[in-house]
Specification:
Elements (H helix, E strand, L loop, with lengths): L1 E5 L3 H13 L4 E5 L12 H5 L5 H4 L4 H6 L2 E4 L4 E5 L4 E4 L4 E3 L2 E4 L3 E3 L12 E3 L3 H11 L5 E5 L3 H12 L3 E5 L12 H13 L3 E3 L4 E6 L3 E6 L4 E3 L2 E4 L3 E3 L2 H5 L8 E3 L10 E3 L4 E3 L7 H15 L13 E6 L2 E7 L7 E7 L4 E8 L2 E8 L5 H10 L14 H7 L1
Parallel strand pairs: 1-2, 1-7, 2-3, 7-19, 9-16, 10-11, 10-16, 11-12, 18-20
Antiparallel strand pairs: 4-5, 5-6, 8-17, 13-14, 14-15, 21-22, 22-25, 23-24, 24-25
Helix pairs in contact: 1-9
Length: 401
């Protein structure tokens, strides 16, 4: 069997490796658009912060891939899929035949349609090339940097640039950072902590233009403020990369539509990771993407023993030494909240319940109990017996039960 995996990110690489292990001798081509070996994209923040070198991010080198029987092709962009002839065409015109095809094309970073958005010095935060651009800019210590977007990736970028000596301002459209993962109180705590580390915030604020002649020089806000910038990082979200699938005539909504075996409308083509849409939902985290890779590998190997089903998703961030974690529904209108806060220890947790079942949680500072709360959210277990001790963590809650 000839298998082509399009995309050498974490999901694509995991799928190729599992297929090689499940089907020794199978002809597997792993095509990556980047001119790089497969690497841990989540660890890019460590590279930016100076906590790791490029080599530490590599998950599989050429020797390891060859030993598995995987034909890895870097800098190979797949431009078209011929479903009738069962072959893919690269941007250079090379044809790669397949019996099974896995789309792991991921997502692309959004760029706000602003005047000046294409100026040199305006970069997204998505891949190794983006981090290299930020590292080049950070050589000018003390230079100003602006990060547009106060979500998880935006704060990682801001923290990394600040740790390298740049004067960073985060421009965010909402009153507090990470509003999708944190409630207002936890967001305020995080902003204050980062402010103590030299990161400034403009919130709520809207960017109307990026100014500069030959390269970026400043960001202009809707209230008239002008923030100088040697580099501007856009961290305003991602969009599933579906153009290849759409042009091939596959069913596409927000993502490439798949079933529980990660099969598309064409039974010999699978889609996994950020580019896939299952039951009307796309994903943006690595853990479920890796699970989808495992499911697709099993299906291709001919054993539909497992089916993918979404779980409660959790987000974790450790920035400037501060740990933040959240999962489930945050501040939903029809829930009851339990709050525990220790200003001296800079610890905060808030839990949201519906019908005496935990549906959401935010932990700030001390995240050691995150696994306990995630299990409760995922299981839907009734917490009536230990509700009074729930915010104190598993040791007290289990004792009360």
């Amino acid at each position: 069997m000839r298998v082509l995996v399009v995309g050498a990110g974490p999901a694509g690489t995991r799928c190729a490796v599992r297929l090689a292990q499940r089907m020794p001798g199978c002809g597997i081509v792993l095509a990556g658009a980047e001119a790089a070996l497969p690497y841990d994209r989540v660890a890019l923040s460590r590279l930016l912060a100076g906590e790791a070198e490029v080599e530490a991010l590599i998950t599989h080198d050429l020797r390891q891939l060859a030993a598995l029987g995987i034909d890895f092709r870097a800098a190979t962009r797949i431009a078209a899929i011929d479903r009738t002839g069962r072959q893919a065409l690269t941007a250079k015109g090379q044809a790669i035949a397949y019996d099974r095809l896995v789309l792991a094309t991921g997502a692309h970073a959004l760029r706000l349609p602003l005047p000046g958005a294409e100026l040199p010095g305006v970069v997204p935060y998505r891949d190794m090339a983006d981090v290299r651009a930020m590292l080049r800019a950070s050589r000018e210590r003390g230079a100003p940097a602006v990060v547009i977007g106060g979500g998880l990736l935006g704060l990682e970028a801001a923290s990394g640039l600040a740790s390298r000596g740049m004067r960073v301002t985060v421009v965010h459209a909402v009153d507090w950072p990470m509003e999708r993962q944190l409630d207002a109180d936890a967001g305020a705590l995080l902003a204050r902590r980062l402010g103590g580390r030299g990161i400034r915030f403009a919130m709520p604020a809207s960017t109307v233009a990026i100014e500069g002649r030959e390269r970026v020089e400043a960001v202009r806000l809707s209230d008239g403020r002008r923030i100088p910038a040697r580099i501007v990082v856009m961290a305003v979200g991602i969009r599933p990369e579906t153009a290849l699938a759409r042009e091939a005539g596959l069913a596409v909504n927000r993502g490439v539509v798949v079933d529980a075996a990660m099969r598309t409308a064409d039974p010999v083509i699978h889609a996994i990771g950020e580019c896939a849409e299952h039951d009307g939902r796309t994903i943006g985290l690595v853990a479920p993407a890796l699970e989808q890779a495992e499911v697709a590998a099993e299906a291709i190997a001919g054993t539909d023993r497992i089916a993918w089903a979404p779980r409660a998703e959790a987000s974790a961030l450790k920035v400037s030494g501060t740990a933040v974690w959240s999962a489930g529904e945050i501040a939903a209108a029809d829930t009851q909240a339990i709050t525990l806060r220790d200003d001296t220890a800079e610890a905060y947790r808030r839990l949201w319940l519906r019908d005496d079942r935990l549906v959401g949680a935010v932990l700030y500072g001390d995240t050691a109990d995150s696994g306990f709360y995630l299990d409760l959210i995922a299981s839907g277990r009734c917490v009536t017996a230990f509700r009074a001790a729930l915010a104190l963590g598993p040791a007290y809650a289990k004792g009360a039960a």
